[in-house]
């Protein structure tokens, strides 16, 4: 079984996010970048399926400028077999990414596509669902447990009311939640081997996809600073402020 895993280049979750002075976007200069944590979980799950003998090949795919090859190589160091970069000037919006990934899926014919449920930079939670719709494939989102048997994927999903278990026919799209697994660290020998693994570069034109902008970023601002607390002298005063000022009771 062939597995395709999508990975995205994002600001490292430990790094402090800075906003540009003109509020046009996030400032990425001299900022540590990494694989989106949910995508890293997707890579780990694919590697575990391969180690269990369920999968035979793992392909890591990323959409973005040349620097995103760093994240593809990181996925290769974790256990993916080869990489594909779809080179664009920047990171496109969700629908464009889904269209590009759909072309790769059509060419590679994987039995399973595993993706992070969302990226920590945009938090859209859209690409996996859009990809499944474009491909006409079944989907199981927010997976906290995945097992493959008899041409089906049994997926336990995290939903508002608890856990839901569904069975879907392969090929299918699965998006990962935080509790699916804990990604491993790449060992130094595997990091060195990853440099020699094949990595193909394609463009949207190669795939016959025209990128169209459907949304416009108007402004980026930092969250409002937390205001100082207020000391009250009595319970009555606290209740009065909660009722008349905070209006929470």
Could you outline the blueprint of secondary structure elements for this entry?
Layout (H helix, E strand, L loop, with lengths): L1 E5 L2 E3 L6 E2 L6 E2 L5 E3 L1 H15 L5 E8 L4 H10 L3 E6 L6 H15 L3 E5 L10 H9 L3 E11 L2 E8 L2 E8 L2 E5 L11 H7 L4 E4 L1 H4 L27 H10 L5
Helix pairs in contact: 2-5, 3-4
Task: Pick out its properties.
249 residues, alpha/beta, Rossmann fold, 7 helices, 13 strands, 28% strand
Structure description:
This protein is of the alpha/beta class and 249 residues long. The chain is built from seven helices and 13 strands. It has a single domain, classed as 3-Layer(aba) Sandwich (Rossmann fold). It has a nine-stranded mixed beta sheet with strand order 11-10-9-12-8-1-6-7-13, sandwiched between helices. It has a two-stranded antiparallel sheet with strand order 2-5. Helix 2 packs across helix 5 and helix 3 crosses helix 4. The longest helix is centred in the first third of the chain and has 15 residues. The chain starts with a strand and ends in a 5-residue tail after the last helix. The mean pLDDT is 93.
Short structural description:
The chain is α/β, with parallel strands linked by helices and 249 residues long. The protein has helices at 37-51, 69-78, 94-108, 127-135, 188-194, 204-207, 235-244; strands at residues 2-6, 9-11, 18-19, 26-27, 33-35, 57-64, 82-87, 112-116, 139-149, 152-159, 162-169, 172-176, 199-202. A nine-stranded mixed sheet has the order 11-10-9-12-8-1-6-7-13, with helices on both faces. Strands 2-5 form a two-stranded antiparallel ribbon. A two-stranded antiparallel ribbon has the order 3-4.
